[in-house]
Amino acid sequence: MxxxxxxxxxxxxxxxxxxxxxxxxxxxxxxxxxKGASTRNIVLGIVIAVVGLLVLLGGVALxxxxxxxxxxxxxxxxxxxxxxxxxxxxGGGERKPRRSSPFLQNLEQRWDQxxxxxxx
Length: 120
Fold this sequence. Notes:
Helices cover about 65% and strands about 0% of the residues.
């Protein structure tokens, strides 16, 4: 759920205050934070792991220890690749505001009213 304008303004004020109080910490934790694992990495890692599993099973079927070990290494590489973080910075550009459906807007409005005490 996207933040409301008021919440975005509060967040911006907190960021400015953090930069003023401790600029070194703010730059190390702020806009250069890395995104989580990308979908591309996850899918490619899973495909590599499945290929490694097939090679491992082929090694077992052929009673080849070398082929089994190779399959295990390929599976491990696939899992490692799937858990890699993306190298792109999270705060690189401005984000476009998401458009929510009227249903979600209604729910958000009711939530805001409930929190402000307007609704019984």
